[in-house]
Design brief:
- There is one protein chain.
- By secondary structure, the chain is of the alpha/beta class.
- The chain has one domain (about 45-340): 3-Layer(aba) Sandwich (Aminopeptidase).
- It has nine helices and eight strands.
- It has helices spanning about 15-30, 55-70, 80-95, 160-175, 205-220, 245-250, 250-265, 285-290, 325-340; strands at about 95-105, 115-125, 130-135, 185-190, 225-230, 240-245, 270-280, 295-300.
- The chain has a six-stranded mixed beta sheet, sandwiched between helices.
- The model is unreliable at about 1-45 (pLDDT under 50).
């Protein structure tokens, strides 16, 4: 048998409990604030709305619709020429310097000459250290991945795969002049010939990015690209963005990618998943390997969602399956990431 000595009874004080509760509240408030001027993170479980985001997704989505109204924009086609006019007018109006890197390619079917042009859109061109944002703007000739064989020679407007990057840049350009800091300039480079592909087993991809990378290596410009971000298929209404394998395996590009995903986490943009999912052959390969510009790929290849029948290269890649909110989320993350580049 054991005995226990009872502790003396103490009069209860409310000072320390109230002090601790107040201290926890203050610390929580500061943890939600972003010290780089970002808005507070959203509380877990609360879905972001367009009104929460200081990036005009509606205007970006309108640009996507305007581009798709042109119709198919295959390299060398009348549709591509109309889109090039749209690009020149849009970005000149926003105050950028627009130039064209022209080159010729061989048509994969008949060997005829195809006139190509990469759009180079410069912000603060006097700055010698620059950040590269890029996308492609040509559309695949046909929706050859359509589940209905009868549609595989039909009309392909490439809303997500083709128009989404240009539409994002059309709104992103409005933010560039307002960014703090005077170290880096920014270029948007929009590649032609990403997929002038009639036969996937025969034809060559990435004509524009490979030409751009070869020229950058062979005849270096006075400026230097210190890092790059490729965007592709980022308007998916059911957005899911994972780490891309080739970007992750490049140590310098990985650093940029991790910073972007961490920015998304701080903002509460949950569609940026910190998990590797796909290895993508895309325009960033030539930039990394040939030009030695460390470039990560921000791409949603699960269109519309993981495990679903894909809209990629099908007649279902239309504006109705894209979203102003997705464009706003990606644009907001990139703007806030840019603000951190001193």
């Amino acid at each position: 048998m054991s005995s226990r000595k009872e502790a003396p009874v103490r009069r209860r004080s409310w000072f320390w409990p109230l002090f601790c509760v107040g201290l926890v509240g203050v610390l929580l408030m500061f943890s939600l604030l972003n010290l780089n001027g970002q808005q507070p993170r959203k509380v877990a479980g609360r879905a972001l709305k367009l009104s929460d985001i200081p990036f005009n997704g509606d205007r970006s989505y309108q640009a996507l619709q305007e581009i798709c109204k042109i119709g198919p924009r295959v390299s060398g086609s009348e549709g591509m020429l109309a889109q090039q006019k749209w690009v020149e007018e849009k970005f000149t109006e926003l105050g950028a310097k627009v130039s064209w890197q022209k080159f010729d390619a061989r048509h994969p079917q008949d060997g005829s000459k195809v006139q190509m042009a990469n759009a180079i859109i410069e912000w603060h061109p006097e700055r010698m250290e620059r950040i590269l944002f890029c996308c492609h703007y040509d559309t695949r000739p046909f929706p050859d991945n359509d589940p209905d064989p009868r549609k595989r020679k039909g009309k392909f407007v490439g809303a997500n795969d083709g128009a989404s990057g240009v539409a994002l840049f059309a709104e992103l350009g409005r933010h560039i002049q307002e960014l703090p800091g005077k170290t880096y300039g920014v270029d948007f480079v929009i590649f032609d010939g990403e997929e002038l592909v009639f036969d996937a087993n025969r034809d060559k991809y990435f004509l524009g990015s490979e030409y751009f990378a070869e020229q950058y290596r062979a005849a270096p410009p006075p400026h230097k690209y210190v890092k790059g971000v490729l965007v592709d298929m980022i308007a998916d209404a059911e957005l899911h963005l994972f780490y891309e394998t080739n970007s992750f395996e490049n140590k310098v590009a990985r650093s940029t990618m991790l910073d972007i995903w961490e920015t998304a986490r701080k903002l509460g943009v949950a569609e940026f998943h910190k998990t590797i999912r796909h290895e993508i052959r895309d325009d960033h390969l030539a930039l990394n390997k040939t030009a030695k510009i460390p470039t990560c790929d921000v791409i949603d290849f699960d269109y519309p969602r993981p495990g679903a029948q894909t809209y990629w290269h099908t007649t279902a890649d239309v504006p109705e399956h894209c979203s102003a909110l997705s464009l706003a989320k990606v644009g907001w993350v990139l703007v806030e990431w840019l603000k951190q580049q001193k």
